[in-house]
UniProtKB/TrEMBL annotation:
It is found in: Cytoplasm. This is UvrABC system protein A. It comes from the Bacteria. The lineage of its organism: Bacteria, Pseudomonadati, Myxococcota, Polyangia, Polyangiales. One of its GO terms (biological process) is nucleotide-excision repair.
Length: 967
């Protein structure tokens, strides 16, 4: 080992190398002979999209770390994890245990919340179990359990000289003879009992002779002792109370007679004590952390099983367009049956119409409330006749059925169906609503009535991180409760602090895991790692700055440094300029993407990178290259107005978005950008223009949509989930290539058509892998793994098909060819050339035309989608919506992306992006800045106008940053 790093280190650290040594790294496009990644530093991997950053960070370093970890497990554990593939690397030395903090693995578990993911909820449960005060949920009184000592003390507080009779109730109103009970009591020396209110001395009835009427209900108690109330008798009282509680399993009655009444004493008072928590005829279980878990039967609401929601059919989804008649499809679940005009559903519709005198051709909204009601909710008890078969034919007949109504019918089938596909169909008409029993709080009433500092645990989880932090800072628990809970309280406040530090103060603790954005989920995980205080670990993060406004970047960077200062290696794949500049060490990948990349161009401090003549990143950092701000801004050609928007945190705002220009919606994380664009605008347009049934976020009206004919959301989701999708199939270029192959003499001679060259249909493909080229191996607990098909060696086709060649290339060879080369290969085919050119224009020339969808990065998928749009004939009336399109993109990629977006606008279209990247923001024609803060403190329009105009608005955080840039 070379002593390359000679900085003095701790003793312990001196024994292990100060860097991870990577030798011969060849995963995917990598061509790295030797690389040293310093340990216990903040290291940033940067470079254009597709240059190989993730291939090294995730697919090599993290993958190998995982693999070595799995190898240390017992063979029993290993069998469940399967064989992890070794990354393609000759040698890795000095690897630490690795933890990846990714964006994508946001929890889809409907039971997860911000509180559970961060473990704050686990600590809250402990805190409430130890220090919470139980109240009866029916009468509101405190429920308390008493100890024998406490009960005795209460008896001793009675006037001196009184006599206390301790009575242990044994049987309450139960049928039976109870002979054995009596014999047992006698055998154990008890003398007095009470049976149905009558005192009986056991020594006065013969053994075995006392028995009760078997079929009647009886109440039996045993008298433990009668004690004069006096401090001298304290010990005797305590023992009596304990014995009584034991006999009765926790309850004790005490009848009190005052002193000096002679023989005719009368009970003057009766007290009841219990070590069981009881009130209003119900006993309350002892509190444990599980009592507060909505995943445990002890804590969960019985009505919703702790989900907090239930599904309900939403009439608005069933009748998306009330101006249609039933025949024209007013009732969405019937629409296709009505269009076909036959089949079972159609018959039922006809019969219902006949029985209820509903005209199938009347627009739904003109039917009247009563008839609508009958169709949707049925006719209780009344039968209708349903006909089947052709009238007059042998199979014709009718039978009677009760009309249950469209909505109850959907609900029933959703409940009873065992097929996921069918359930998904019904699910489309449903909406989640809060559970009525718990009001969405997920817990049972007994749990919800436990309070600490006046708040139930659900009151705390409805707080935002910021509010909860303030609540716990102010919370002082005194005495024993304070002592036992101090540690727990500290865990809670420190975790809340980490969440504040990563800019998530606006999230509520009960916010569901599945509703978090990728960036939010990642930052939560980052915050949780700080809580774990691990050291000596290598953390690998993928663009933690995603979703974060420039304003909050500093706090995120401070968090990353803190993770490093705990003694960890923090390896971040990132393009954000501020983060790159904050790194201890930068590794710049390139020079290009795919086979044009895969090398390390420069490594060193940010300053060294900036000076490096060959580093593209350096060129941007130093300003040698920059994305030019457009000289002039386009003038809007019209407006869309969203009026009265109240979805999530939006404050009943009116927002106007210009048409015919590039608009950026900006604002800090949680400001309400997605609520506006993805929550209201997109689904509203989807409904109007494409007949989708997606629920639309709360707003009053949207105006000005009539000039649009299409809305297209371009996201970074894969272009397909299986290896069957690729850029060629997605852009239809491959269809043309197959046509071309079918025209070749060799193919025509055999009568082969284009289907022969498809890997999706039988005939030309390899049947061993059904044309996938790979075979899926399912892994327990882990993502599926694909291995190359042994029969076709990954070529996807059978031998005969492969014998047909175009310019020397088989169809399989074509799939394995980069788009750049395909363009040369197919130059003579105009239509194909046009599609391939747009793929090259968006910077995807390096990608193989057959590269399978699951292996493409989010940025690559996004650009494939954009290129398909560019290659379409433009109507000039399309609205494109992109949510943080710069995710995964380097400065250079952003320059290309902006070029594509500007082209779409030049063709007359409108583009709306949600974006934090200042390069994009300053190049937009128009900005709508939402905020000013995240969550409740946001939801308003802070500024709108050209970047120059917004830069002058001091209240706008975006404006403040723009002002510096545009100066
Ligand atoms: P970056 O992280 O720099 O954007 P990647 O490491 O994701 O780049 O990708 C480097 C190259 O390897 C790209 O050309 C990409 O398409 C390719 N690639 C990534 N994952 C796979 C995979 N699973 N199989 C084949 N090629 C892949
Ligand atoms: P942005 O896109 O500007 O980051 P969002 O529109 O995602 O902001 O969030 C605005 C507010 O609405 C935040 O307080 C956020 O926590 C809340 N919010 C967003 N999505 C949901 C949801 N599915 N359920 C409840 N609250 C949500
Ligand atoms: Zn419930
Ligand atoms: Zn095969």
């Amino acid at each position: 080992m070379q002593a390359a790093h000679s900085t003095p280190r701790l003793h312990e650290a001196a024994r292990e190398p100060d860097f991870i040594e990577v030798i011969g790294s060849r995963e995917h496009n990598l061509h790295i002979d030797k690389l040293e990644v310093p340990k216990r530093q903040l290291v940033v991997f940067t470079g254009v999209s597709g240059s190989g950053k993730s291939s090294l960070a995730f697919d090599t370093l993290y993958a190998e770390g995982q693999r070595r970890y799995v190898e240390t497990l017992s063979s029993y554990a290993r069998q469940f994890l399967g064989q992890l593939q070794r990354p393609d690397v000759e040698h890795l030395r000095g690897l630490s245990p690795t933890i990846a903090i990714e964006q994508k693995s946001a929890s889809n578990n409907p039971r997860s919340t911000v509180g559970t993911i961060t473990e704050i909820y686990d600590y809250l449960r402990v805190l409430y179990a130890r220090a919470g005060e139980q109240h009866c949920h029916q009468c509101g009184k405190p429920v308390q359990a008493q100890t024998a000592e406490q009960i005795a003390a209460e008896i001793l507080a009675l006037p001196a000289g009184a006599r206390a009779t301790l009575i242990a109730p044994l049987v309450k109103h139960r049928k039976g003879e109870f002979r054995e009970l009596f014999d047992d009591l006698r055998a154990r020396g008890f003398l007095r009992i009470e049976v149905d209110g009558k005192a009986i001395r056991l020594d006065e009835v013969a053994e075995g002779s006392l028995k009760l009427e078997k079929h009647q209900k009886h109440t039996i108690a045993v008298i433990i002792d009668r004690v004069p109330v006096s401090a001298d008798n304290r010990q005797r009282l305590v023992e009596g109370v304990e014995l009584g509680l034991r006999e009765s399993k926790g309850e004790l009655e005490v009848s009190v007679e005052s002193a000096g009444k002679g023989a005719k004493k009368q009970a003057e008072a009766a007290l009841t004590f219990s070590v069981n928590r009881a009130c209003c005829g119900q006993s309350f279980p002892e509190l444990s952390p599980q009592s507060f878990s909505f995943n445990s039967p002890l804590g969960m609401c019985n009505a919703c099983n702790g989900l907090g929601t239930r599904l309900e059919v939403d009439p608005a989804l069933v009748i998306p367009d009330a101006s249609l008649s039933i025949r024209d499809g007013a009732i969405a679940p019937w629409a296709s049956a009505m269009a076909r005009g036959e089949g079972w559903t159609f018959r039922i519709a006809e019969s219902v119409a006949k029985a209820c005198k509903v005209n199938l051709d009347t627009p739904w909204k003109k039917l009247g409330a009563k008839k609508q009601q009958v169709v949707l909710f049925g006719m209780a008890g009344q039968k209708i006749a349903v006909a089947w078969g052709k009238e007059g034919s042998e199979s014709h007949g009718t039978f009677g059925m009760t009309w249950e109504g469209v909505i109850p019918g959907l609900m029933r089938r959703f409940r009873d169906s065992t097929s996921d596909t069918a359930r998904e169909q019904y699910r489309r008409f449903m909406r989640e609503i809060a559970c009525d029993a718990c009001g969405g709080r997920r817990l049972r009433p007994e749990t919800l009535s436990v309070r600490l500092a006046g708040r139930s645990i659900a009151d705390v989880t409805t707080m935002t991180v910021r509010e909860a932090a303030a609540h716990f800072d102010a919370l002082t628990l005194t005495g024993a409760r304070g002592q036992i809970t101090e540690g727990v309280r500290r865990e809670i406040t420190s975790r809340l602090g980490f969440l504040l530090n990563v800019g998530l103060e606006y999230l509520t603790l009960n916010r569901g895991g599945p509703t978090l954005s990728g960036g939010e989920a990642q930052r939560i995980r980052l915050a949780s790692q700080l809580g774990s205080e691990l050291s000596g670990v290598m953390y690998v993060l993928d663009e933690p700055s995603i979703g974060l406004h420039q304003r909050d970047n500093g706090r995120l960077i401070a968090t990353l440094r803190r993770l490093r200062d705990l003694g960890n290696t923090v390896l971040v794949v990132e393009h954000d300029e501020e983060t790159v500049l904050a790194a201890d060490h930068v590794i710049d990948f390139g020079p290009g993407a795919g086979h044009l990349g895969g090398k390390v161009i420069a490594a060193g401090t940010p300053e060294e990178i900036a000076r490096h003549p060959e580093s593209l990143t350096g060129a941007y950092l130093s300003g040698r290259i920059r994305i030019e701000t457009p000289k002039a801004r386009r003038t809007p050609k019209g407006w869309i107005s969203v009026l009265g928007a109240t979805e999530h945190n939006l404050k009943n705002i009116d927002v106007r978005l210009p048409l015919g220009v590039l608009t950026a919606v900006t604002g800090v994380s949680g400001a309400g950008k997605s609520s506006l664009v993805n929550g209201i605008l997109l689904p509203a347009l989807g409904r109007l223009l494409h007949g989708s049934l997606e629920p639309v976020g709360a707003h009053r009206a949207i105006e000005g949509l009539d000039v649009l004919d299409k809305v297209i959301a371009i996201d970074q989701k894969p272009i397909g989930r299986t290896p069957r999708s690729n850029p060629g199939t997605y852009t239809k270029a491959f269809d043309m290539i197959r046509e071309l192959f079918a025209q070749l003499p060799d193919a025509r001679a055999r009568g082969w058509e284009s289907g022969r060259f498809s890997f999706n249909v039988k005939g030309g493909r390899c049947e061993a892998c059904h044309g996938d080229g790979v075979v899926k191996v399912e892994m327990h607990f882990l993502a599926d793994v694909y291995v190359t098909c042994e029969v076709c060696k990954g070529k996807r086709y059978n031998e005969q098909t492969l014998s047909v060649r175009y310019k020397g290339k088989s169809i399989a060879d074509v799939l394995d060819t980069s788009i750049d080369e395909c363009l040369k290969l197919f130059e003579a085919v105009p239509e194909l050339k046009r599609i391939l050119t747009t793929l090259v224009d968006v910077g995807l020339g390096y990608v193989k035309i057959g590269q399978s969808a699951p292996t493409m990065s989010g940025g690559e998928a996004q650009r494939v989608k954009l290129s398909r749009e560019l290659s379409k004939r433009q109507t000039g009336r399309t609205l494109y919506v992109l949510d943080e399109p710069t995710t995964g993109l380097h400065f250079e990629d952003i320059r290309k992306l902006l070029g594509v977006l500007q082209r779409l606008v030049d063709a007359g279209n409108s583009v709306v992006v949600i974006e934090h990247n200042l390069d994009v923001i300053r190049c937009a024609d128009w900005l709508v800045d939402i905020g000013p803060e995240g969550g409740e403190g946001g939801g308003r329009v802070v500024a709108e106008g050209t970047p120059e105009q917004v830069a002058r608005v001091e209240a706008s955080y975006t404006g403040q940053f723009l002002a510096k840039l545009l100066r």
